[in-house]
Amino acid sequence: MCEVFQQTVAAHPDVVALRTPDDSARITWREYGERVRQIAAKLYALGVRKGDTVALMMTNRPEFHLVDTAVFHLGAIPFSIYNTSSAEQIDYLFGNAENRVVVCEKQFEPLACSAETVLTIEDLADDSPDFDFDATWRAVDPDDVLTLIYTSGTTGPPKGVEITHRNIRFSMAAALEMPQFAAAATDGRVLSYLPDAHLANRYFAHYLPMCTGATTTCVSDPKTLASVLPKVRPTAVGIPVCEGWAMSESSVHGTVNRPDALKPGTVGKPMPGVEVRLADDGELLLRSPAVMKGYRKDPVKTAEAIDAEGWLHTGDIGTISDDGYVSIVDRKKELIIYAAGKNMSPANIENAVKVASPLIGSVVAIGDRRPYVVALITLDPETGTDPHALAQDPEIVQAVTKAVREANATLSRVEQIKAFRILPTFWLPGGNELTPTMKLKRKPIAELYATEIDALYSER
Fold first, then answer.
1. Which PANTHER family match (predicted)?
2. Which fold, 1-218?
3. pTM
C-alpha cells in the first residue's frame, strides 16, 4: 500500500485528499504525502521500526489518515481502538498488540497511560531529524501486516485480525472492477463517519481513496451526518442500496449485490476473486487472497478459522441459491435450539421486533434448551432520559406490546415470543451488553439478567 499511496500522491498532487465538513482543514494529496514523511520521521526518531505496533486513539479526523499512513510506511503496524473502550479493555489490547507507542487526542491521554510512549496529535508537529524515508517504505513487503483489526469480542476477548498489504491490494483491485466501487474514482467523494477501529471505515474511507485519489470528508460526530450530506454530495448517495456481507477476517471482501442485479433479502454474489460454499452443517465458508494472515499470537484459533485448504470458516449459517446469491441466517454459535429440537435464529426474531417500533433499542431473544422463547427489550436511548420511568409508562408498554404482537405475526409458532420484559436501562455501545459495533454480548447478558430471564419462565 506504500507504493499505491505514493503513486496517488504523484498523480493527483493538487486534489484535496482530506477535509472536514466546514473546510477548516483541507489537505491535498501533495500535503498528505509531505505530512506522512514528517510524521514517519518523528516516529522513527522514537524508535518505531518494521514490525512494531502503534496504537491510535482518535475521533474521526484527518490526522488519523496521516498517522496511520506514516506508521505503515515504516513497515510498522497501526491499529485503532474504539473510543468507548474502558481502561481494562485498552490494557488488554496493548498487551496483545505489544505496542510501545500510542498516538492519541488529548482527551484520551489518561486511558493510554500504560503505554511506554504517549504522543498527542500536537506532538507530531515537532520537527524530527530526517531519515531515508524512501528506502524505508520500499523495504515494506506485500506480506507484511498492514493493520490489526480487533474483533468486537461477543464471545470472549477480542482477537487481533492481521491484515496484510497484499490482502488489501487484492481486495481493492477486485472491488474497483465493480460499478458501485469504481464510482469512487479520481473525482469521487467519500464520507468517513464510522470508527476507524472498524475495518469497513478503513476500507472505504482510507484505503479505497488511497487507490483512486478520491476526497475523504471526516465527520467527527455521526449525529451530524444528515446536515453534512448536502455539503459533501458523496459519490455513492443516490444509487440503490446494495446489501453485502463480509468480515474483518476476509478484509471486508465477501459478497455484494450489484446495482444491475439487485436481489433483496440476500447479500448478493461473491465479489471478484471470492469462492464460497456451505459446510455440511450449513456454515458459510469463504476463500480468497484477501483472507487474513491470522489472529495475532493465537495459532490455535487461526487454525480453527482457516483450514488446510485455505477456507475461512466464517461462523455464519447461510444459504446459496441456484443462481449464486448468498443469504445469511445467523451466527452459528447463536442459534437457539428449541427444547423440541428445532433450530431457530435469534437475530430473525429480534429484528422482527425492532422493525416494528422505533421506540425499541435492543432486543435479545432467549430460548436455547427452553420450552419457549422470551425476550429482554430495552428502549432506544433517544426515547428519553429516564429509562426507569419509560419502562413503566403505560403508553410505552402498550407500544412495545403491539410491536411484539406484530413481530409474532410474521414468525412461526415456535419462534414467537411468549413473554418479554422492558428493562429499566439503556444499553450503549461498548457497555456490558453491547460491543462497540452494537452486537449483543449474549453470554454476559444471560449472566447479568439471569433473575429477569428466570422470572419470565416462572411467570407462565
1. AMP-DEPENDENT SYNTHETASE_LIGASE DOMAIN-CONTAINING PROTEIN, LONG-CHAIN-FATTY-ACID--COA LIGASE
2. Rossmann fold (3.40.50)
3. 0.79
DSSP codes, 168-212 = HHHHHHHHTTSHHHHTSSTT-EEEE-S-TTSHHHHIIIIIHHHHH
- Taking the CA atoms of 109, 111, 113 and 118 in sequence, report the sign of the dihedral they define: negative
Q: Is the pLDDT of residue 168 over 70?
A: yes
336-459: CATH topology: GMP Synthetase; Chain A, domain 3 (3.30.300)
Helices (H), 380-441: 387-392, 394-410
CB-CB contact of 360 with 377 (8 Å):
yes
DSSP 258: -
* Crossing angle of helices 346-354 and 394-410, rounded to 10°: 130
Half-sphere exposure of 350 toward its Cβ, with a 13 Å CA cutoff? 22
* Residue, of 208 and 157, whose pLDDT is higher: 208
How far is Cα 432 from Cα 137, in angstroms, rounded to an integer? Answer: 41
Label the pairing between strands 101-104 and 53-57: parallel
pLDDT tens per residue, range 368-382? 888 889 999 999 998
pLDDT (average), residues 344-351: 86
Do residues 82 and 104 touch, judged by C-beta distance below 8 A?
no
Q: What is the DSSP string of 60-81?
A: SSHHHHHHHHHHHHTT-EEEE-
Q: Is 270 exposed, middle or buried (0-12, 13-18, 19+ CB in 10 A)?
A: buried
Cβ–Cβ under 8 Å, residues 158 and 134: no
| CATH number, domain 237-255+265-331, options 2.30.38.10, 2.40.400.10, 2.120.10.30, 3.40.630.30 | 2.30.38.10
Distance CA 297, CA 295 (A): 6
Any idea where the domains of the chain sit in the sequence? 1-218, 237-255+265-331, 336-459
Query: Has residue 185 got a pLDDT over 60?
Result: no
